[in-house]
Design a protein that fits this description.
2 copies of one chain form a homodimer.
Chain A: E1 3-7, H1 13-28, E2 36-39, E3 52-54, E4 57-58, E5 67-70, H2 76-79, H3 83-95, E6 98-101, H4 105-111, E7 119-120, H5 127-131, E8 137-138, E9 143-146, E10 149-152, H6 157-170, H7 172-181, H8 202-205
Helix pairs in contact in A: 1-6, 1-7, 6-7
Chain lengths: 215, 215
């Protein structure tokens, strides 16, 4: 299986690299091919927080892939005005086994028509953007899968999505290996009280809540 | 406060970028200066899984910083044979407000003498390396702080460490803002049964265990 990761000027660094790491660990175990970095504009894009990358290939020259991964970041809202980018993403939605987005990568999915009639999510601060599109069923979950389309909440949420994707395609044992390699057993420490806000995703409002004793 | 992130050929991508993102979000809130990427060898290093980066500056030309961050990756075991690198890291241990390592970044800390007489940790598969040094008190925790030295378990563990560091330096409210920006409320989904292994860190063996009802 061949994974390609989209990059562009103004990409949110962790959106991209959280899932890249998990796929890299998968490739190190020879379960898939090494991932590739496909730029939508500059060959040396700069991340939202100033980290500079070198892309492997430009999207106009990219060979087919099985899985396309679309990170978020403010630069995505610029690159989505390029009709060639939109056409490229639309084509991937038709031909790929899966297309995954993190955070505002969902804007690009939406622009390319990939979320039409689908359940999807995005960073909690940007849910309104998807809600403005009546063809999308917005879910306030950490990640959502609908057909060949996967989408996740903000930044770090992509890692939970990618692990679930790996489990769905390669099985629980492979997902367990990758999780252990990455030591992805995060602390459940919550700073402040985000659960008490009305503007966050439902899953955040429910953090730490116990299941009702009886239903 | 000025953060510098060390990079080198063969860096583990998420070790570096997980914490970079959190500091980037801190900088976006004007709480600290934008972070910088300081290379220990190549100006365009390639990560363990093939991602290519462009460093901001070479360590020989780097200006002083308040916080130095050292990621892991197999390349660290090569660069630590460079005496100038070791001297540079040793100097940072003396002059910085804090030096933090993720995963096998601890090897570089150890080589530079920064872990002498300290409690410290590393990726669960590499604990034996620190245990070979009788001057280190090895802790099987997700992250450890001892004086101006912070260290964490493998790959993703650095994010929990960095959030705790941010809370300790800038307060809980700032840590809460960054956690919410990054939507760092990970799923507690564990694939497989890593808790049943004897070779993992103690905190992994204790995952999901309930506190005893009475002590």
């Amino acid at each position: 299986m061949k994974f390609q990761f989209v990059i562009f000027d103004g990409v949110e660094e962790l959106d991209l690299v959280g899932s890249w790491e998990l796929v890299g660990l998968l490739a190190a175990r020879k379960v898939c091919e090494p991932p590739e970095l496909v730029t939508l504009n500059e060959m040396t894009p700069r991340g939202e927080h100033g980290m500079r990358f070198i892309a492997d290939i430009h999207f106009k020259d990219a060979v087919p892939c099985d899985v396309l991964f679309i990170p978020g970041g403010s630069g995505g809202r610029i690159v989505m005005d390029d009709q060639e980018v939109v056409d490229y993403l639309r084509d991937k939605g038709r031909t790929c086994e899966a297309v995954l987005s993190v955070c505002t990568g969902s804007y690009l999915m939406q622009k390319a028509g990939l979320l039409k009639g689908r359940r999807a999510t995005t960073h909690w601060e940007h849910l309104h953007h998807l809600r403005d599109d009546p063809t999308i069923e917005v879910c306030e979950q950490r990640y959502v899968n609908d057909g060949n389309i996967w989408s996740s909440g903000g930044v770090s949420a992509g890692m939970d999505m990618m692990l679930a994707f790996i489990a769905s395609k390669f099985g629980e044992t492979v997902a367990a290996d990758v999780q252990l390699d990455a030591e992805y057993f995060p602390s459940d420490r919550i700073y402040g009280t985000p659960q008490e806000r009305s503007d966050v995703s439902e899953y955040i409002r429910n953090l730490g809540k116990k299941e009702p004793a009886s239903k």
